[in-house]
Amino acid sequence: MPYTIEPIGRIHSPYKEKFSVPRQPRLAPSASARIQLIGDANSPEAVRGIEQFSHVWLLFLFDQNLAAGWKPTVRPPRLGGNERIGVFASRSTFRPNGIGMSAVELKGITHEGSQTWLELGSVDLVNGTPIIDIKPYIPYSDSIADARGGFAESTPEVLPVIFSTAAQMALQPHPQRQHIQDVIEQVLGQDPRPAYKKNKADDKEYATHLFDLNVKFKVETDSTSAITDVNRNFIHVTSIERF
């Protein structure tokens, strides 16, 4: 029997496209977001009492991937994008029903006229992602101290991020310059390129749409002692332009 799911909200986040979205929440802690509740869910009554919880679970749709379908096996980025495992042993965005979930910080509830918003900490969702449910995170049952993380046991490596003079100048007049620079550093430091390019310098220039900015960058190898990263690779933000 088929079931119909209607979104109860939409995410407003700095990530305007799939490329460069962190692969898990809280990897870019400065990148806050909001949920705009919609339809019957847009009611102060629907979120009454939720402020008692510091974190919530978000259930959402990978709406940009639904048309592409899914396969029983996938190549997780944490395994270098080469080894195949079952889709249910991964957090692949290509799933039978296209449903994802994230545990995120709840910073508060705001009301703007008749519109109710949930203010969130760092998320891993593209701007506009449909939210299909919100549930409180309950530490005593949801946090399992001795759980095993399989192939994703450790925190991902973060590369240093260096801004060119031109990129720094482009950010200078922005009213939220420091906040935006922090987000760019945290996002690009995860190295958003395809998994098979991880830890490898690359002559190609990439671009990603964050906030109202087009951020261009390269992954380069440092030839001096200024960068102390094990692989001596770093992210070089070459230019920043406003859309």
Question: How does this model look, in words?
Answer:
The protein has 243 residues and is mostly beta strands. The chain has helices at residues 139-142, 165-171, 177-188; strands at residues 9-12, 33-37, 55-61, 73-74, 85-86, 99-112, 115-120, 130-136, 161-163, 202-210, 213-221, 233-242. The protein folds into two domains: 9-142, Elongation Factor Tu (Ef-tu), domain 3, CATH 2.40.30; 161-242, YaeB-like fold (2-Layer Sandwich), CATH 3.30.2310. The protein has three helices and twelve strands. It has a six-stranded antiparallel β-barrel. Strands 9-12-11-10 form a four-stranded mixed beta sheet. Strands 4-5 form a two-stranded antiparallel sheet. A hairpin with a 2-residue loop joins β10 and β11. The longest helix is centred in the C-terminal third of the chain and has 12 residues, at 177-188. It is globular, with a radius of gyration of 19 Å.
